[in-house]
Amino acid sequence: MIQPAPARGHVVIASDKFKGSLTAVEVADHVSAGLRAVIPTLPIRTVPIADGGEGTLRAALSAGFRRVDVTAAGPTGEPVQAAVAVKDRTVVVELAQASGLHLLPDGRPDALNASSYGTGQLIRAALDAGCSRIVLGLGGSACTDGGAGLVQALGGALLDSSGTELPRGGAALARLHTIDLTSLDPRLRQVKVVMASDVDNPLLGPLGAAAVYGPQKGATAADVEVLDAALAHWAEATAAVVGDEHARRPGAGAAGGVGFAAMAFLGVQPSAGIEVLMDLLGFRQELAGARLVITGEGSLDAQSLHGKAPVGVAGAAGTQGVPVVAVAGRTELSVEQLRGAGIRAAYSLTDIESDPARCVRDAGALLEQRTAAIAADWLIDPPSATGPHPGNHADDLERFPSDA
């Protein structure tokens, strides 16, 4: 029997969710189990991570935030049970809690009419909780309304030429005539809102909210044209009121344009979601004395290199000289790309199971097997300067659920 070497420091587990199979908290539990199956006394600290999208609320709750339940309007108006996370005077609002794709009744998309109204209601709940800082996590939205619903929920009036309030949804913005902010919640002036997103798209055009993300929300080619034109009208009307042009700013297209409304009406400066969340969840504090960081997400691919959680975690750990390895459902990045991102090795479920359906169904058990390999490679015998060869197999590119 191999005798584990004496512990020389703790291991930090800081992974995002495996979309479609495991939450970030569940990933941390299975990784811990796999490590301790090999080294029972290994000191482990877990920091479940998110980048602003789905899972942000869970990550905050795991870090000691308190859950406050809120009844809000879902993306197509039906009431949904959502929540915000509160700690001291900071409140975490996850857009997907009220305006997420997964909340569409029977999964039926409604690209033209889905709204961010419920997210505005969550912000109101944050204000009711007496916050001084709101962390607004954007991702997984069902709407392409430029954040108009959010503004309406916060008291802004969006009127057509007859003075009638517009119905919710992006398509209705084509009829916008007047933006009246007289009744916009005055408490917004007393709080700082921080936007956490991994998207840098502008609001409009071929790289904008409608063109890039609309089809994921059920928009046809014709719908995309309708929505992009309506959003352009919304942006023009907004600029006339707030005196600034936000539509071209990176991140304005986040969450169907909710990023745009957050910038224009809430004074938000966009931030990399993973950077905001790492600070909020106390990840950097756990690096002191660590011997290894294990990060990951469902799919390590080209999108991971653009603001996703594993690369953010690796960058922060690298500044402290702590080596980082990753776990994933699948890995599409080359050894060079992984190393360039600061990840020494990647251990994927597809390394040991070629059936993607089983990777999803049995993700926990398979993850424990891969994590046992990490323990053997990195925590028993001292690894070389570059570590073991990453467990990245170019042939294992079957489709594991993407975290996009």
UniProtKB/TrEMBL annotation:
Kindly give the InterPro entries that the UniProt entry links to this protein: Glyc_kinase_flavodox-like_fold, Glycerate_kinase, Glycerate_kinase_RE-like, Glycerate_kinase_sf
Q: Name one Pfam family in it.
A: Gly_kinase
**Keyword line:** Kinase, Transferase
- Recorded protein name is Glycerate kinase
Q: Which residues form the signal peptide?
A: none
The answer to whether UniProt assigns keyword Transferase to this entry is yes
Chain spans, region Disordered: 380-404
Listed under GO biological process in this entry are: organic acid phosphorylation
Quote one Gene Ontology molecular function term. Answer: glycerate kinase activity
Which family does this protein fall into? Belongs to the glycerate kinase type-1 family.
